[in-house]
Design brief:
Helix content is about 40%, strand content about 15%.
């Protein structure tokens, strides 16, 4: 890639100079590093800890704060060079909001420029004392926000970006959000638009482009000065990441260039603010649209709740969580994943309350799983604080991947807040009309998310609707109006969550470690890769030093298994550093999601983070190093505990039967986290009554489980794609019996 006025090769050299200056203890660079690190800790917590890095898909080396700071400063220098080139080329100055975090002094200490002197024409002075050169205006007019996104991705490695929950929005999706919002307000050209987590500026630039287009079609032409004033007072962005803010400001400026090329404008404000839009960290910027925005747009941070700084969690609980009723569930139920699972929904709801005018609309990219999962009860509740909320439209992208590398299905939601006399307390008592929904699906073409036109040209669309599974519970799971619903009904069984530890590196038992520990507390352990339809593809070994969460057995463990206790003691600091409230009760090595149900003789297990609704009955396995021991479902698993083998197989047969599979797939919507408790609890699972049909289902499930071990010589993916005639025959009979079972329930 190339950017006018920016020497990308010098950007790499610049990064090396930053690292060298930092190693040498340069005062200006070190001060900037300390300020940046304080900013990151304040807003993101301990994102550089090994477990946080691993959870984000990175590792300790790629997410080291020193390395990411060097990347950050190099990117900031490149963006500044581009902006100086724009100023020199168009003869103007830009005004930015004053930020507490300013890298200018550090840049002054680096004796290398990232400005590209080879593609220049006229030298001009720059307001910060650095020479800038003009280039061909046409070259700058061809640059857009997506070019800056690519520059960022080139400069900052993907694992480092993921620790901040950053998944930048492709232009096509941003344009779709702007189009949907613009169609829902009376006059988008004058609407006050805000993106409270603007990233590199995809939604901001899409909004500016739409407003420019509306103005061009107007019968009342405006001067360049008037146009710039109208745009810069009605399109505002905020982000907590200084790198994102630098990119968004420059992207904002690039989008104004078609107006600026004719001259007549000397100064251009860039209303993109560095700070916390939620106001939790004490640095909320004054944007001028508080409580008055007509449109909110954006792709909020998808940061898991457990990774948030403790101070931010506390401020959330004391502020918007309590004020807006963000968490309806409390205690262990909420901690087990039945409440909001990341920051995105609390972020959006707080911004709707803080910034959106009554009757305003919002378009946000969020998880598709919120249509069915427990975290989405807030979204489906029909309220924002005391104001009613309606979902006007959903664009479902579960079948495609607009956010490259994100293991979560996405959707674009269009909301309207207020503007109605309906009491939001009555939301759960009124059955809503089906929400119009567009399902975007792949075709033979390569998906083009670079523009809305490209998106429409390369993807197919199905128009459908969404409504609650239970008409009396608006906030419960929703399903498509064209979904298979034959298997919906009452679930008589309690669904359990697998083991939660937050320290896999400590509790995982590799072969070389097994010899160092007593085998008493080591068990076969299931991860998502092990569970297939009707069976298991292996297992891991895991240290489970308790029989029940919260029970203090420290003295007994030290006495009966001294090697195991010594090993855990050696890792005490790491275990005590786990930040979640899951592990506050009991000894320092406490686990969560552990109880009598864990040790049930039979369990129907599935992967809650799986794309396929595949269920299996597990009991014990014969491990060569452990002997025959009870299988323990891991963190990504959910299960139903049973005392009776036939009961377990009856349940498994129903859940794997075609009517149930169709229903679960439609409810889950293709999302990675779709097989949650609330989704599986929505299907009919009557209590075991030892009837003929239940027994027949149990017999067939046992036959299916007996077939699977004959095909475990391949990968799980190969097995899932394989056609096994003898298994297919059993499954056809299960489907037939399950269908008759549903008809007679």
């Amino acid at each position: 890639m190339t950017l006018p006025g920016v020497d990308l090769a010098s950007t790499d050299d610049y990064r090396s100079r930053v690292a060298a200056r930092l190693d040498a203890g340069d005062a200006l660079v070190t001060e900037a590093f300390d300020d940046w690190r304080t900013h990151v800790r304040r807003h993101h917590g301990a994102v550089f800890d090994d477990d946080h890095a691993a959870a984000a898909g990175g590792d300790a080396e790629t997410t080291a704060p020193r390395d990411l700071f060097c990347d950050t400063l190099a990117f900031d220098a490149a963006v500044r060079a581009l902006r100086r080139t724009i100023e020199a080329t168009f003869g103007l100055r830009t005004d930015e909001p004053t930020d507490a975090l300013d890298f200018s002094p550090a840049h002054d200490a680096i004796d290398v420029s990232v400005a590209d002197a080879d593609a220049t024409a006229t030298e001009a002075g720059d307001h910060d004392g650095t020479a800038a050169r003009a280039v061909d205006p046409a070259a700058l007019l061809a640059v857009d926000a997506d070019d800056l996104r690519r520059l960022y991705e080139r400069t900052v490695p993907a694992p480092s970006r993921r620790v901040f929950g950053e998944y930048y929005t492709p232009p096509g999706v941003a344009e779709l959000g702007v189009e949907a919002a613009a169609a829902s307000v009376d006059d988008f050209s004058s609407a006050r638009v805000m993106d409270p987590g603007c990233g590199a500026g995809a939604f901001l630039t899409a909004a500016l482009r739409r407003k420019r287009g509306d103005a061009a079609a107007s019968d009342a032409p405006a001067t360049a000065v008037e146009s710039i004033e109208r745009l810069t007072t009605t399109v505002v962005g905020v982000d907590v990441n200084p790198v994102a803010v630098a990119a968004a400001r420059t992207a904002y400026l690039l989008e104004l260039l078609p107006i600026l090329r004719d001259g007549g404008v000397e100064r251009v404000p860039l209303p993109v603010f560095l700070g916390d839009a939620l106001g939790l960290a004490g640095d909320a910027p004054t944007t001028g649209v508080e409580g008055a925005a007509t449109v909110l747009l954006g792709n909020p941070p998808w940061i898991p709740w457990e990774r948030l700084p403790s101070a931010q969690k506390r401020r959330l609980r004391e502020g918007p969580v309590e004020r807006l009723g963000l968490f309806d569930l409390q205690g262990a139920v909420a901690r087990l994943g039945h409440a909001n699972d990341d920051l995105s929904l609390p972020f959006v709801w707080t911004c709707l309350d803080r910034y959106l005018d009554d009757g305003g609309v919002a378009a946000f990219a969020l998880k598709r799983d919120h249509l069915g999962g427990p975290a989405g009860r807030l979204l489906r509740s029909g309220r924002v604080g005391s104001r009613p909320l309606s979902i006007e439209h959903v664009h479902d992208f579960a079948a495609v991947d607009p956010f490259d590398g994100v293991d979560a299905a996405a959707a674009l939601y269009l909301f309207r807040v207020g503007g109605s006399d309906r009491d939001p307390e009555d939301a759960t008592e009124t059955t809503p009309e089906a929400v119009p929904t567009t399902v975007w699906e792949p075709t033979d073409c390569v998906a083009d998310f670079g523009s809305l036109a490209g998106l429409r040209a390369t993807l197919a669309r199905t128009e459908t609707g969404l409504r609650p599974v239970d008409p009396d519970d608006r906030a419960g799971p929703w399903h498509r109006t064209d979904a298979a619903v034959d298997a919906l009904g009452d679930c008589a069984y309690r669904i359990r969550h697998g083991l939660k530890d937050d320290a896999k590196a400590v509790f995982s038992v590799e072969p070389d470690r097994l010899a160092e520990l007593e085998p008493t507390h080591v068990y076969p352990y299931l991860r998502s890769k092990h569970v297939v339809k009707w069976g298991l593809f292996g297992h891991d070994r895991f240290l489970v030093p308790q029989r029940q969460a919260g029970v203090d057995n420290e003295r007994a463990l030290a006495r009966e298994s001294p090697a195991t206790y010594d090993y855990l003691t050696d890792h005490r600091e790491r275990l005590e550093a786990r930040g979640s409230s899951w592990f506050e009760a009991g000894p320092f090595y406490s686990l969560f999601g552990l109880g009598p149900y864990t040790w049930a003789p039979y369990k129907v297990v599935w992967c809650r983070l799986g794309f396929k609704p595949h269920f299996a009955v597990v009991s014990t396995v014969d491990d060569p190093g452990l002997g025959e021991k009870t299988v323990v479902p891991g963190d990504h698993c959910m299960f139903v505990a049973c005392d009776d083998e036939r009961e377990a197989h009856y349940l498994c047969a129903l859940l794997n039967a075609a009517p149930y599979q169709r229903c679960l797939r439609d409810l889950a919507g293709g999302g990675k986290a779709g097989l949650s408790k609330s989704v599986v609890s929505s299907v009919s699972l009557p209590t075991w009554a030892d009837t003929d049909r239940q027994n027949r289902l149990a017999d067939l499930s046992r036959r299916a489980h007996a077939i699977v071990p004959n095909y475990t010589d391949c990968s799980k993916r190969t097995y899932n794609d394989r056609s096994i005639p003898e298994l297919a025959a059993v499954e056809r009979e299960i489907d037939a019996v399950a269908t008759r079972f549903l008809e007679g329930r």
